[in-house]
Amino acid sequence: MQEFSKKLIPIEDEKIKNLKKRFFSDPQKIVSRNEFIEQADKWFMSTRLNQLHSVDQFAQKDIIIGCTQFIETLALKNKWNIQVLPRDYAYYAVMGKQHTEIGNLKPGVPLIVSIPNYYYGHRPEWEAILEECKVKNIDVHIDCAWMTVAKGINLDFGHPNIKSFGMSLSKYIGSWNRIGLRYSKQKSMDSITMFNTQHKYNDALVSCGSFMMDNIQRDYGWSTYGEKYKNICKDNNLQETNFIYVAKKDNECVSVSEQLISK
Question: What domains can be seen in the chain, in order of their start residue?
Answer without folding.
Answer: 30-215 (3.40.640.10)
